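Researcher: Final request for today, and then I'll write up notes for the group meeting. The sequence and the SMILES for adenosine-5'-diphosphate follow.
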Amino acid sequence: MTALPEFLSTWITEQRWYAGKGRAPVWERLGGFDLPDPDGQAHITVHLFLDTAERPLLYQVPLTERSAPVAGLDHALIGSYEENGVTRFVYDGPRDEACAKAILRLILDEGAVLPDDGAPGIAARGHCVPTTPAIEIRGARVLSGEQSNTSIIYDMVGLDGTGAKPIICKVFRSLHHGENPDVTLLSALAGAGSTVVPQSIGHINGQWHDTGEPTGFAHGHLAFAQEFFPGVEDAWRVALEAAEAGEDFTERARTLGEATADVHTTLAGVLPTHAAAPRDIAATIASMRARFDEAVAEVPGIEQHRAALQSVYTRAATSVWPAMQRIHGDFHLGQVLWVPGRGWIILDFEGEPMRPMLERAREDFPLRDVAGMLRSFDYVAGSVAQSRGQSVTDWALAARRAFLDGYISGYGTDLRADRSLLDAFEIDKALYEAVYEARNRPAWLSIPLAAIDRLVERAAS
Ligand SMILES: Nc1ncnc2c1ncn2[C@@H]1O[C@H](COP(=O)(O)OP(=O)(O)O)[C@@H](O)[C@H]1O
Ligand SMILES: O=P(O)(O)O[C@H]1O[C@H](CO)[C@@H](O[C@H]2O[C@H](CO)[C@@H](O)[C@H](O)[C@H]2O)[C@H](O)[C@H]1O
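Model: Predicted protein-adenosine-5'-diphosphate complex:
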């Protein structure tokens, strides 16, 4: 395939991971490479397409092309086109086992592939964690459910035929020059022996054309593979069920606080940290003010809090700020799994999807994650009130308190000593959520708006 056919462009714009909804895309191909198919039936190509219609966004689109349709693969068929009188059938790569297997094989074999346009250098290189046992892929399927990327689940078998743990490989759909924090942070945590994240298996690094870079090429992570926990529920579901049943959640909230502190302590031990300089504090306060303006633009009613929030931010600026370090960045109950026999497992260190990737890859304040999880317990109450008309405010308050207790006992700093600083971060997260809900789930907008009212009132008292 040389140019991007219309049917493929339409398909891309319909995918959950396509961010440019509501306008016509303008495509440019910045790179691509072929992966070997051991069966020789499929032509597997990973395309990197840039949409230049507005703010340029680069997408990773693995496809397979076949000369005849494959029985049982209709769900993955995107369309067909003619080339030199021959019809080519185009499939969504991750849903075609040939491509799914080739992606993981590149990681397990630490393979390297050349660009398909003759550009110099390596287009993609797989890296595998040395402790990964010798394993073979038995089957692959795409994870169902809402996702910003595309994850493939692999059933694995040991080379001696014995069972092996399944693997999940996240294929990043939106690509950026530089590190993807999900890979860097989860690899660093797993490498440091943390038991509250999945074990890492490996990742793929890629290179593509970028006239904005001095070398003419950009480099970034294309995919990340890790241990998969089958049949488990995320903490959002576990908490929701407990709240609806009026079940005490404080012990689990406390251990989640401890697990969060464990992640922060480990990250501070293995990756750079630095004391918060006046310019860091000023930049954070400026970003909070910018967030407020963004929220007002999306939800004009928030303007009523302008004066009160000015004093919240002014007061926060004079607080004693903790050191800066790498953090999760978008921490909420949906990012945590409850794994029976193992406990809480924390996932998805990609940071807030609405923040530029460069910002997400910098040191930040751990308070941001604490505030994120506090908001999430409030969301449980908001969701139960909406869906069942049931008030679980006390449940949420107790969970918030227990989470903070667990966090403080593990992290060693009493965050309650200067509650106004933590409140500033919580308000900031609720403003982010107001924008997120206004854009994605207007029916839930009242949840962050009620929290903003409450937090502003408390700050003023
Ligand atoms: N290691 C894992 N084990 C089990 N389920 C997982 C694992 N990693 C991710 N998941 C499931 O996939 C979902 C999406 O993963 P996530 O990392 O949040 O992807 P995305 O960044 O695309 O949203 C999670 O909410 C969880 O349900
Ligand atoms: O897609 P991500 O998981 O990276 O995060 C985005 O979507 C989340 C919703 O799925 C959103 O989280 C908000 O809603 C949750 C309940 O669905 C709640 O638990 C969170 O506390 C709340 O922030 C998240 O903000 C957004 O970045």
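Model: The two ends are 64 Å apart (CA to CA). The pocket of LMANGFYV (ligand 2) is lined by residues 148, 236, 330, 332-334, 352-353, 375-376, 379, 433, 436 (CB under 6 Å).
Researcher: Thanks, that's everything.
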